[in-house]
Amino acid sequence: MKKHFSQTESLVKGLLGSLLLATICAVGARAAEKKIVVGFSQIGAESGWRTANTESIKAEAAKRGIELKFADAQQKQENQIKALRSFVAQGVDVIAFSPVVETGWEWVLREIKRAGIPVVLSDRAVAVTDDSLYVTFIGADFVEEGRRAGRWLAKASDGKAVIAELVGTPGSAPAIDRKKGFTEVIGQYPGMKIVKSQSGDFTRAKGKEVMESFLKSPDAKQITALFAHNDDMALGAIQAMEEAGVKPGKDILIVSIDGVHGAFEAMAAGKLNCTVECNPLIGPQLFDAVDAILAKKKLPKRTQVIEGVFEQSQAAAELPNRKY
Ligand code: AHR
User: Fold this and answer.
1) Which domains does the chain have, with CATH numbers?
2) pLDDT averaged over the chain?
3) Residue 154: what pLDDT?
4) If you count DSSP H runs as helices and E runs as strands, how many of each does the chain have, helices first?
5) Which ligand 1 atom lies nearest to the CA of residue 260?
């Protein structure tokens, strides 16, 4: 009887031991499987550039097995703030976002910092008094892009141009900085002046609408050049010019920024004169930064994207190589 009892006892012990081992293994496997979770608040889908940027970010997250919580703010800061707060509530590992405008982020960034979640700024910067509110910024030098557009136009017009300007979203970093860089350069040429300047909100529809109103104004005939803060607005303006019987790229020289596929097609067709590149394919750099942050590695405060300038003469050869 005693022997039988101790046999049962060791059987039970053995079973409990294997059960414990199985539980430990399962917990370990689950921990190893734990995915990195990143919350990304995107501005919207206002331009071809933005669509390419979204695709780059989504594709890179998928490639790396990162869980991406993606929120489209439809170009509204309040929607971005809501999304950022919801990422905090969900306890994501890292928050990244492309701020629609430069100011108004201090409060929410402080909340995120208190929650201990690192922030990466993607594409656009913020104006904050405390730069410890974000870890790093990845994007372009918008001031330099504006300068490049100004230099190109100064050369192409021999320093003489009556310019209409299609401005990006008011208060956004690219609109502020591109204008700054462009005016800095043309300020060196007494024969170059901006006579019209209005926001087209970085969209093709608004770019067309604003150009239509420029062309209807009594002094429209003076305009010899257009500087559009992005290609989409330039493409809309090209349509407006054609409908008004003005030859885009000939009657009015056009320089814009981004380097999207549509801009290369317009250049190849002789309707756009120059596009200054702004590279949206920053998904790989963004997730390299996420990995580095989670590995507790030190990152530079700014990582700049390398970009070029393309003219009509290069368009046809360059078109097949364009990735966005
Ligand atoms: O922030 C980058 C700018 O935003 C791009 O030039 C424009 O096309 C986009 O909407």
Assistant:
1) 35-140+280-305 (3.40.50.2300), 142-278 (3.40.50.2300)
2) 93
3) 98
4) 11, 12
5) 8
